[in-house]
Each structure stands twice: as C-alpha cells, then as structure tokens.
Design a protein that fits this description.
By secondary structure, the protein is mainly α. It has one domain. Helices cover about 75% and strands about 0% of the residues. The chain starts with a helix and ends in a 9-residue tail after the last helix. About 20% of the residues are buried.
Length: about 150
C-alpha cells in the first residue's frame, strides 16, 4: 500500500511534466507578433491594390514594406519554439515564391499587372496572412501557463 501511495504522485508528476512539455512545444502567444502581422496584412493588401499601376510609382512603398516584412520574419525566427510561424512568414515573403514576395517580383518585372491577376493574388496572400494570424492567435497565452 505504501508503494502504491508513492507511485500515484510520481505518475501524476510525470503526467503533468509531459503535459507542460506538450503545451510549450510551440512558442507562446506574443502580442507584438500578432499586432505586427495584422498591420503587415493591411499594408500589404493595400499595396497590392496599386499593382495595376506602374511599379516605379510604388517602388519606395514596396521596398519599405519588404523591410518591415523582413523584420517580422527575423523577429519570428528569433523567438524560441517558433519555427512554424517563421517558416510561414518565409513562404509569404520569399521573392522566388508564389505569395507576396513573388508578387512583388512579378510586379517589378512586368511593370504593372492585370486586375484579374491582382485580385486572385490578393485573395491567396490574404489567406496566407490569415494562416499566420490564426497560428499566433491560437497559441497559449503566457498568463495561462502555470
């Protein structure tokens, strides 16, 4: 009986340790990251709307936004256990990819883009941002970790 009384608390402690490891296998929620990605979404979609115009008219805006996006990526990469979010942002901003980075590359190379392409790209890019936003908003809040 004494042995059983010792085993139960030990098993409980192991179980709680496993649970706490599982809940922190991904970064905790970060208000800065959440606000930052929402702001970048709004700015990006607004700039995408201008892609039917000449790239040269908006080059400075694109460069400024790319710098902010790169900052968000580096911020995400620097957070512990945040590899998934960092990878999502990388896919979004990769200039050789098919999302925002690739959109800017194409806009620059073609000079201006057709409205239909802009609208389709905007929907895909908005969804990519929503995936990142959803991941961040679904993370455990630091105050909820005991």
């Amino acid at each position: 009986m004494t042995k059983t009384l010792f085993i139960i608390p030990s098993l409980l402690a192991i179980f709680l340790s496993i649970i706490s490891c599982e809940t922190t296998s991904i970064a905790l929620y970060d208000e800065t990251a959440y606000s930052q990605i929402i702001s970048l979404k709004v700015d990006s979609l607004s700039l995408i709307e201008k892609a039917t115009e000449s790239y040269s008219l908006h080059e400075a805006e694109v460069n400024a936004l790319q710098k902010e996006l790169q900052f968000a990526y580096e911020y995400a990469r620097g957070r512990p256990k945040n590899e998934i979010t960092a990878e999502q942002i990388f896919l979004l901003i990769n200039p050789e990819g098919y999302l925002l980075g690739g959109f800017f590359t194409r806009w620059e190379s073609e000079g201006s883009l057709k409205r239909a392409f802009v609208e389709n790209a905007k929907a895909l890019i908005a969804e990519a941002f929503d995936q990142i936003i959803g991941l961040e908003s679904g993370k455990i809040r630091p105050e909820d970790v005991g």
